[in-house]
């Protein structure tokens, strides 16, 4: 029997079958710049340079999927919807000026066109280049922003948090707009070749909002994205950073196939609570372990994750969140080694 391709391995797990071993999919994007020597900011404007770095990362480190992104989708969409960005030399862009300063500003917000608005076309072209290069051997994961998070980018996180209490109608109005933007972007990503669409909703984290606020504002709109993504023929995943233990069931009932867990969540507990419903993915600490730890520590922690929740095949070894740009590549290699050594199914 010929060995499975990374695409086959990942899709078998997502479809509830046991492949040859636990797949390993680190959340690695701009860290791959280390391999090609391209500058983080320089690459932002070049679909060819980002695609080359992402492809080189997969080829040289040997993980099972490519995260087809370079900076966060919520930043890209925030800029395309009118936010002014600043571009630090050694980091990814950040919102410098919000486009929504008063509720009245919502009247002027337009839903961006992924083929035309801001720097979205650069992302779309990168995705097209990746799709051509991977020839269906390697799955492509792409992000779309959670509507709650994108609303925080457009108008500021603190005003959004205040408004959940003082002006819920405003929160519904702005997140209805960001839902449309996120959905349109997700569909464009699927059309350009993304196999898995991850709704990334860091501002909806249990570290920032209560389970009730999540239920009232974030969850219903995540569910709408998930259903649009599924209808368009792609796999839906959900990424929420930080402590999501209180909302695990809400995450799992959104209709997603995969739930990505950050390092603050206990994998074994998550497995007990939602492991029957969804495939779990996670959750090595991106900073303390993957940036600052040693390959030996990474291998040991990854081994423990596989032993804790990987035996039934419904698990993808990953980082808990995006891997920092300066993380040593030997730590990523150690993750891959752990999946190959300890993740085999007999
Ligand atoms: Zn995260």
The SS-based structural class is: alpha/beta
Question: Helix and strand string, N-terminal first?
Answer: HHHHEHEEHEHHHEHEHEHEHHEH
Helix content: 40-55%
Specify the number of helices.
15
Rg from Cα: 19 Å
- What is the number of E strands? 9
Looking at the structure, what is the overall shape?
A: globular
Plain-language structure description:
It is a single chain. With 346 residues, the chain is of the alpha/beta class. It has a domain at 29-264: Alpha-Beta Barrel (TIM Barrel), CATH 3.20.20. The chain has 15 helices and nine strands. It has helices at residues 6-14, 33-36, 40-44, 47-61, 73-80, 120-134, 147-155, 157-166, 168-191, 211-231, 248-252, 267-274, 286-291, 295-309, 329-342; strands spanning 66-67, 84-86, 94-97, 140-145, 196-200, 235-239, 258-261, 279-284, 315-319. A seven-stranded parallel sheet has the order 1-4-5-6-7-8-9, with helices on both faces. Strands 2-3 form a two-stranded antiparallel sheet. α8 crosses α9 and α14 runs parallel beside α15. The chain starts with 5 loop residues before the first helix and ends with a helix. The mean pLDDT is 96. Zinc ion binds at residues 202, 239, 241, 262, 321-322.
Q: What is the structure about, briefly put?
A:
The protein has 346 residues and is an alpha/beta fold.
List the helices and strands and how they pair.
Elements: H1 6-14, H2 33-36, H3 40-44, H4 47-61, E1 66-67, H5 73-80, E2 84-86, E3 94-97, H6 120-134, E4 140-145, H7 147-155, H8 157-166, H9 168-191, E5 196-200, H10 211-231, E6 235-239, H11 248-252, E7 258-261, H12 267-274, E8 279-284, H13 286-291, H14 295-309, E9 315-319, H15 329-342
Parallel strand pairs: 1-4, 4-5, 5-6, 6-7, 7-8, 8-9
Antiparallel strand pairs: 2-3
Helix pairs in contact: 4-6, 5-7, 7-8, 7-9, 8-9, 9-10, 14-15
Bound molecules: zinc ion.
Residues 202, 239, 241, 262, 321-322 line the site of zinc ion (ZN).
């Amino acid at each position: 029997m010929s060995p499975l391709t990374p695409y086959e391995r990942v899709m078998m797990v997502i479809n509830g079958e046991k492949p040859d071993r636990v797949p390993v999919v680190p959340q690695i994007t701009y860290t791959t710049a280390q391999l090609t020597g391209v500058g983080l900011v320089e690459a932002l404007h070049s679909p060819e340079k980002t695609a080359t770095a992402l492809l080189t990362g997969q080829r040289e480190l040997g993980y099972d999927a490519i995260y087809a992104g370079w900076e966060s989708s919520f930043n890209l969409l925030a800029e395309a919807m009118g936010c002014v960005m600043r571009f630090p030399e050694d980091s990814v862009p950040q919102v410098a000026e919000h486009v929504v300063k008063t509720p009245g500003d919502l009247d002027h917000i337009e839903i961006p066109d992924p083929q035309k608005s801001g720097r979205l076309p650069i992302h779309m072209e990168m995705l097209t280049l990746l799709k051509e290069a991977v020839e269906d051997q390697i799955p492509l994961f792409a992000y779309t922003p959670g509507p709650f998070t994108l609303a925080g980018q457009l108008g500021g996180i603190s005003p959004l948090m205040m408004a959940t209490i003082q002006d819920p109608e405003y929160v519904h109005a702005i997140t209805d707009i960001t839902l449309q933007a996120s959905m349109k972007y997700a569909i464009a990503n699927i059309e350009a070749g993304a196999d898995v669409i991850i709704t990334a909703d860091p501002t909806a984290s249990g570290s920032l909002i209560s389970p009730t606020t999540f239920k009232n504002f974030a969850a219903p709109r995540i569910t709408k994205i998930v259903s649009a993504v599924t209808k368009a023929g792609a796999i839906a995943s959900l990424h929420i950073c930080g402590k999501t233990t209180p909302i695990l069931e809400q995450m799992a009932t959104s209709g997603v196939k995969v739930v990505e867990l950050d390092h603050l969540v206990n994998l074994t507990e998550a497995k007990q609570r939602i492991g029957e419903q969804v495939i779990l993915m996670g959750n090595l600490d991106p900073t303390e372990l993957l940036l600052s730890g040693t390959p030996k520590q990474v291998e040991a922690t990854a081994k423990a994750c596989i032993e804790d929740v990987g035996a039934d095949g419904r698990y993808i070894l990953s980082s808990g969140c995006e891997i920092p740009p300066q993380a040593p590549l030997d730590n990523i290699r150690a993750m891959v080694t752990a999946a190959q050594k300890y993740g085999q199914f007999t």
